[in-house]
Amino acid sequence: MSDPKPFRYDSVPPGEKRHLRYEISETYLGDPVEVPVTVINGEHEGPTAFMTAALHGDELNGVKVLQEVAARYDPATLHGTVVCIHVANVPGYLAQQRYIPIYDLDLNRSFPGRNSANTAERMANQIYERFIGPCDVGIDFHTSTRNRTTMYHVRADVAKPEVYRLARSFGSNLVLSGEADPGSLRTVATRDGIPTITVEMGRAHRFQLPLVERALEGVESVLAEYGLLPGRPVVWPGWTRVVENASDKAWLRADAGGLVEMQYGEVPLVYEGDTICTVSDHFKKREHSVVAPFTGLIIGVLQNPVAAPGHPLCHLVSVDKKTLTEIEREIAAGEFSERPWS
Ligand SMILES: [Zn+2]
Questions:
Q1: d(CA 39, CA 23)
Q2: What is the pTM assigned to this prediction?
Q3: 145 C-alpha vs ligand 1 centroid, how far in Å?
Q4: Residue 275: which residues within 8 A CB-CB, separation 6 or more?
Q5: 230 C-alpha vs ligand 1 centroid, how far in Å?
Q6: Is residue 341 part of a domain?
Q7: For residue 76, how far is its CA from the centre of ligand 1 (angstroms)?
Q8: Distance (Å) from CA 142 to ligand 1 centroid
Q9: Which keywords does this chain's UniProt record carry (predicted)?
Q10: Which residues have CB less than 5 Å away from ligand 1 (the ion)?
């Protein structure tokens, strides 16, 4: 395939919405592999925002978000352009698996890609040069990998003020800060001056509609923040926790093989010293407890309840005193809605 040329968003006339298919590769049969893209070019001038889903082919919540985003915004009221790349990793999506099924390549480690490299890098290059490069800001939707689930949160390098602005305006309670992997879309776009956040929401292979609704509110808030929807409110969540230090998060791992039983209650808040889960052998002769090393929120748990030593069981982030007080208040008032495993 030839070198991709940046998409000219003004080739969709102002005031129009177009659904396109853009070839990024070919199958073994030589047939085109095409990504579905919606471009909504507002009647009024403004920035260009991209949104991507299914860079990992089995992470579906974002696909549902973008189906709704593409349908709901009217170019007559939009100031700027919204670009939805509905399914980035088409071969992975067709196989309903995370990686591109050819040598299990990870599309989200392949940006910005090159046209003379492997399949994933070529696809990444077609998507990046064509659609991402000309944008001003971006949101990339993911879920947990299969057999795990994750609390709704944003990943962003908030040390960069423009990224902080984006992460804040998306309005998730929890932000995990830091650089992503070098070849991820978030890292590369942000480095190229296009502030980009990753949204992690729930499980693979599911549409979790309450999470989809929250993400749609987040999108609307971002569009308001950047002036694409002037006059709409920017939404701020109740409690917020930005986790910046490595010591404030931990993957708790199994030290023994066996059957995993989660011990925490309804809400994902645990206190230092609480038993989060146990790992027992099949004869119930031996039991290991996994204990919370600090007070915090369980933001990810395994769903496949068997483990070998070293297996990640749950992801814990610490909460500061102020956040803890607010979360405790929300729990007591019945307002706390985080249920990452439901
Ligand atoms: Zn992912």
A1: 16
A2: 0.95
A3: 7
A4: 263, 289, 290, 291, 292
A5: 31
A6: no
A7: 33
A8: 4
A9: Hydrolase, Metal-binding, Zinc
A10: 56, 59, 142
Task: Report the separation in Å between the CA atom of 144 and the middle of ligand 1, taken as the mean of its atom positions.
Answer: 6
- Going from the Cα of 155 to the center of ligand 1, the distance in angstroms, rounded, reads 12
| Predicted confidence (pLDDT) per residue in 100-159, tens digit | 998 899 999 999 999 999 999 999 999 999 999 999 999 999 999 988 899 999 999 999
Q: Is 191 exposed, middle or buried (0-12, 13-18, 19+ CB in 10 A)?
A: middle
Instruction: Tokens for 216, please give them.
Output: 């749609």
- Please tell me the distance between residue 154's alpha carbon and the centre of ligand 1 in angstroms: 12
| Domain count of the fold of the chain | 2
**Ligand 1 centroid to residue 325 C-alpha, Å:** 32
Is 176 found in the same domain as 94? yes
Residue identified by tokens 């830091």 is 178
What CATH number does the domain containing 224 carry?
A: 3.40.630.10
Identify whether residues 261 and 308 lie together within a single domain.
yes
Exposure on the CB side of residue 253, measured as CA atoms within 13 A: 7
Domain with 252, as residue range(s), is 245-332
**C-alpha dist (Å) from residue 46 to 80, 97, 111, 198:** 4, 36, 26, 23
Residue type, 262: M
Q: pLDDT of 208-253, one tens digit each?
A: 999 999 999 999 999 999 999 999 999 888 899 999 999 999 999 9
How many angstroms is it from 120 CA to the middle of ligand 1? 15
Query: 276 and 213: one domain?
Result: no
CA 56 to centroid of ligand 1, rounded, Å: 5
Give distance in angstroms: CA of 327 to centre of ligand 1: 28
